[in-house]
Amino acid sequence: MTDSLDKIVSLCKRRGFIFPGSEIYGGLANTYDYGPLGVELKNNLKQAWWKYFIQSREDMTGIDGGIILNPKIWEASGHVKNFTDPLVECKKCHHRFRPDKLKDTSKCPDCGGEFTDVKMFSGLFKTIIGPVEEDGLIAYLRPETAQAIFADYKNILSSTNRKIPFGIGQIGKAFRNEVTTGNFIFRTYEFEQMEIEYFIPADADWNKIFEDWLDYMYGFAELIGLDKKSFRNEEIEEKDRAFYSKRTIDIYYEFPFGHDELWAIAYRTNYDLSKHQEHSGESMEYADDETGKKYIPHVIEPTFGLDRTILALLGTAYTEEKDRIVLKLPAKLAPYKAAVFPLLRNKPELVELAQKIYKDLKKKMNVAWDDRGNIGKRYYSQDEIGTPYCITIDFDSLTNNDVTIRDRDTMKQERMKIDKLGEFLREKTS
Ligand code: GAP
């Protein structure tokens, strides 16, 4: 791991963004829990995504499908047969690797030992439905959220009266039994995806729609404060694409450990709906009222890893300045919108007014309270977790009804009337 990734991992644990999973039992490799601040950041990001991709567009709608689906879905989609990775194991140290990701496949990079033959390894997590294991039904934890959208496609059409083109989005957990994991939350067994399946006519100008979606994805990158210069599009060559994809772009980002895939966009043709029609016996055809044509819709799929987006945001926001560490998160994503301090904790009149302001603001947004140490230490502590504004209640506040409000990035302080705080913060942070 690079130095800056180490620093982010350490800040995440120290301040309650992300903890190693099951730590009191020695942990469980590559599993993580989002702590009190992490869950706020994650929820704010999900909300921003949902608003931008689903609610603000007339051609989009959403679902929240199951994690466990009928296993026939994964047979139809090809995952049971094809969702595999090659694996080799070192005969000496027993470390496992994906040979397609190694620079030298002749010997183990960790100990120089000899490798076993290549085996194919399923990326699906299996589980059993039913109280008795022997009689149970083998099911899978979904490796992508997309398939619930395809399985629900007919119900969505009939319940919403949608006309093609339109899209369905979903945010939720996905599970992959990865051969190699690592780089903190970049590649884990359990992660969240935010996916869109956008249904288009069979004879549509798919490349134009693909390019429009790519642009729209970059609009989201800007909205959440990712750095334009840190992006790179990797056009995936035919030999490396999923066999059903006619075009795939992996959207790379500069993470603290180097460039790697953040998001992706693919033209999945009508492969998925055709396969579900074939396996379920249910027609997936769409009847166009205007042209009278019937066809199985094609699909453009923009897909986003939520945890990778969090890592990209943390890497971009993490800033070391002369006397402080600042997480320069966009205000709308920051866990706390403001922190409220009484200048002195042993002056009941200051504490009383500060508590009133804190409680009033807390009804409107997530705000923090801090009365420990001195003001400098409190600023330091809030800068490190990305709180955009700090509000201090002092003796003048008691007579003038105003407070000092300090901006995280500029460190400038100004006086503001107490009754203006709510409106100011809502405007600046939502
Ligand atoms: N439905 C298409 C699909 O699942 P993918 O490229 O395999 O495509 C989409 O995954 C996104 O999910 C990736 O771009 C990445 O952000 C995220 N992702 C995939 N595997 C992951 C893992 N093991 N850990 C964390 N995020 C992962």
Give a quick summary of the entry:
The chain is an alpha+beta fold. Helices cover 32% and strands 29% of the residues. It has twelve helices and 23 strands.
Spatial shape: globular
Could you tell me which ligands this complex binds, including any ions or cofactors? glycyl-adenosine-5'-phosphate
Radius of gyration: 25 Å
> What is the β-strand count?
23
Q: Pairing-aware structural class of the strands and helices?
A: alpha+beta
Largest sheet: 7 strands, mixed
Tell me what portion of residues adopts beta-strand conformation: 25-35%
* CATH superfamily caption of the largest domain: Bira Bifunctional Protein, Domain 2
CATH topology name of the largest domain: BirA Bifunctional Protein, domain 2
The overall pLDDT average reads 96
CATH class of the largest domain: Alpha Beta
CATH architecture name of the largest domain: 2-Layer Sandwich
| Helix content bin | 25-40%
Low-confidence stretches: none
From the N-terminal CA to the C-terminal CA, the straight-line distance is 34 Å
Q: How large is the count of helical segments?
A: 12
Total individual domains:
2
Physical arrangement of strands within the biggest beta sheet: 3-9-10-16-13-12-11
Commentary on this structure:
Strands 3-9-10-16-13-12-11 form a seven-stranded mixed sheet, with helices on both faces. A five-stranded mixed sheet has the order 20-19-21-22-23, with helices on both faces. Strands 5-4-6 form a three-stranded antiparallel sheet. It is an alpha+beta fold and 430 residues long. 32% of the residues lie in helices and 29% in strands. The mean pLDDT is 96. Strand 12 (247-255) and strand 13 (258-269) form a beta hairpin. The protein is globular and about 75 Å long. The longest helix has 20 residues, at 36-55. It folds into two domains: 3-69 and 157-316, BirA Bifunctional Protein, domain 2 (2-Layer Sandwich), CATH 3.30.930; 327-429, Anticodon-binding domain (Rossmann fold). The chain contains twelve helices and 23 strands. The protein has helices spanning 3-14, 36-55, 71-76, 79-82, 146-160, 206-223, 271-280, 306-317, 348-362, 375-384, 395-400, 421-429; strands spanning 18-20, 32-34, 60-63, 84-89, 96-97, 119-122, 125-129, 137-141, 166-175, 190-200, 231-235, 247-255, 258-269, 286-287, 294-295, 298-305, 318-321, 324-327, 338-342, 367-369, 389-393, 402-407, 413-417. It binds glycyl-adenosine-5'-phosphate. Residues 144, 146, 176, 178, 187-188, 191, 193, 195, 261-264, 301, 303, 305, 307-308 line the site of glycyl-adenosine-5'-phosphate. Residues 144, 146, 176, 178, 187-188, 191, 193, 195, 261-264, 301, 303, 305, 307-308 line the site of glycyl-adenosine-5'-phosphate (GAP).
